[in-house]
Design a protein that fits this description.
With 152 residues, the protein is of the alpha+beta class. Helix content is 36%, strand content 26%. The chain is built from six helices and six strands.
Length: 152
């Protein structure tokens, strides 16, 4: 049996080494249900785990959804201005000392099943940071698949 806690702990340790992260959250994505559910957070007071799941899409023209879920490519906001333009919770993010974000899709059998969300100070990330973040996804695929089976 896969130990989600250990796998997530290892992911956070790796993320803090490279590309760096003040905050890490991991979510499952259920496209058919239009739902994204947080299954891990290094700051559960600000970004709690669980719940029913928040809507995955904001509407038909959702650049984040198109990039991360449909195209299965990472999303990166390198500065506060871009963060403010693209994330409704930017005030909370900024209050935590974060001004940059990388979202990495977790893909299994051609479907986006989750997202790794790394946040750090403005200016902390660049294109090489995105490359480092992509490397974090493969080890958690079996964990997110097991979450899908447990909840689906």
């Amino acid at each position: 049996m896969i130990d989600a806690h250990d796998t997530f702990r290892d992911l956070v340790a790796a993320a803090r080494r490279s590309p760096g992260a003040r905050l890490v959250t991991i979510s499952t994505i259920e496209v058919d249900e239009n739902r994204m559910t947080r299954v891990y957070s290094t700051d559960p007071a600000s970004y709690p785990v669980g719940g029913v799941g928040e809507p995955l899409r904001e509407g038909d023209d959702d650049p984040w959804y198109d990039r991360v879920v449909v195209q299965q490519q990472p999303w990166a906001s390198f500065d506060v201005e871009d963060l403010r333009a693209n994330f409704a919770d930017h005030e909370l993010i900024e209050s935590l000392g974060c001004g940059a974000i990388i979202n990495v899709p977790v893909v299994h059998d051609g479907a986006t099943i989750g997202s790794i969300n790394l946040l750090d100070a403005e200016g902390r990330y660049d294109p090489s940071s995105v490359d480092a973040a992509i490397e974090l996804a493969a080890p958690i695929v079996p964990v997110l698949v097991s979450f899908d089976r447990a909840t689906g």
